[in-house]
C-alpha cells in the first residue's frame, strides 16, 4: 500500500508538481525550438518519453550493480585482487557522469537503429528528433535524480527500486510532453497575434512560458495533501505494528533532495559561501 | 566564410555580437535555473568557463586525430571528464554552493554552448585561438547570467550577493526568485535587447 502511494506521488510530482520543463528548466531547448506546431511537439514528447525511460532503466541498473559503493559486480571484480573488506568499499560514483553520458548516447543510437528496422513509420514520425535527444538535458537529469536516490539514500530501505526509477522517468517524460504540447498550442495562436517586433520568436515564448509556469505552480502542495488523504485511514493500524512508516523518507525524496529553488534563496548563507571561497585561494 | 576569424575577433565576438545566451539562445537551462541569486550565477559561469576552456584547448590539440563520425562522442567524453573535475572541486571547496547548484553542474555536460564551440571553433583552429574563443564566450555567458540574476535577486529579495540593497519598505517580490520569474525576466530582457539592437544598427547584426 505504501509502495503504491509512493509510486503515485512520484508520478504526480514528476508530471505536474515539479514539471521537468517548468520547474527544473531541463529540456528548455526543444521547448523553445520545437514547440511551433502541435504535431511536432507530440512527436518530440513521445520520443523523449521513450528514450528517457530506456535511459533510466540503464542508469538504474548500472548505478545499482556497478557504480554505487558496495555494488555487487564491482565488489566481485575487486575482491579478485584486494582483500574483501576493502573491495566492499570501492566507490565508482565519480565515474557516473561519464558512464551516464555514454549510456545515453549509445542507447539513443540503438533505439534509432531498432526503430528504423522494425517500425519504419514511427521512425519517419520521429525524424530528426531522435539524434537530437542525446543532448537533451532532461534525460541526463532523470538519470542524476535516480542516482541521487540510489546512492544518496542513507539506509537501504529508502533506496529507490527499478519501479520507482521507471515511474519517475516515464512520468517526467509525460510532464515534458504536456508542457511542450500546451506551449505549441499557444504558439500556433500566437502566430496570428500582433506581437511587438522585437519580442517575436523566443522572447514571447519565454514570457508565455513564465505564465505557464505560474499556472503550474498551482499544483504545489498537492502531493502532501494527497498523502495525508491517503495515509489518514490506515495510519492507525499500520504505524502501531511496524516501522516509522516511509512517510518522512518519501517527503525527503521528492522535495528535499532537489529543492534548491525553495531552500536556496540567496539569504541562506553568504557567510558560508565567502568562508568556503577563501579556502582554496 | 573564407577565413577563420583570428583570436582577437573570436574573443570580442563572444562577449556581445555572438553572445551565447542572448544571440545564439544556447545553454538556456542553467540560464533559467541558477539565476535566482547572483552568487550562484557567477559560480555557474565560472564552472562553465573552466570546462569550456579546458575542453576547447584539448579538442583543439587533438583536432587532427578526430574522425568525423566519432567527434561528438569524443566531445562529450572530454566535457564529461572536466565536468567531473569541476564538480568534485566545488563539492570540496564550496560545499554550500555545490548543494545550491545541485544537478545543474553535471548538466554542463549537455550544455549546448560547449559542444557548439568545440564544433565551430576548437575542431578547426589552433589551441590559442580556441582558448581566446573560450574566454570570450564564457565572459559573454557570465555577463548574460549576471544580468538576469541581478535583476531577479534585487526584485525578488531586495538584496544583492545576499546584502540588502533595497529600502526596507520594498516588498519582496518572491515570484521573481521562483521558476516563473526566470522565464519572465529572461523573456523581457531578450525582447529589450532585440529592440535596442534593432534601433541601433538596423539589420547589421541580424
TrEMBL record, chain A:
It is a multi-pass membrane protein. The chain crosses the membrane at residues 7-26, 38-67, 88-108, 128-153, 165-186, 198-220. The keyword Coiled coil does not apply. Keywords: Membrane, Translocase, Transmembrane, Transmembrane helix, Transport. Its main location: membrane. InterPro entries: NqrDE/RnfAE, NqrDE/RnfAE_oxidrdctase. PANTHER family: INTEGRAL MEMBRANE PROTEIN OF SOXR-REDUCING COMPLEX (PTHR30335), NA(+)-TRANSLOCATING NADH-QUINONE REDUCTASE SUBUNIT E (PTHR30335:SF1). This is Electron transport complex subunit A. It comes from Desulfosarcina ovata subsp. ovata.
From TrEMBL, chain B:
GO terms for cellular component: endomembrane system; plasma membrane. Keywords: Membrane, Translocase, Transmembrane, Transmembrane helix, Transport. Its main location: membrane. It is found in: Endomembrane system. The keyword Ubl conjugation does not apply. The chain crosses the membrane at residues 38-62, 69-95, 101-118, 139-161, 173-196. Pfam families: Rnf-Nqr. InterPro entries: NqrDE/RnfAE (IPR003667). It is a multi-pass membrane protein. This is Electron transport complex subunit E.
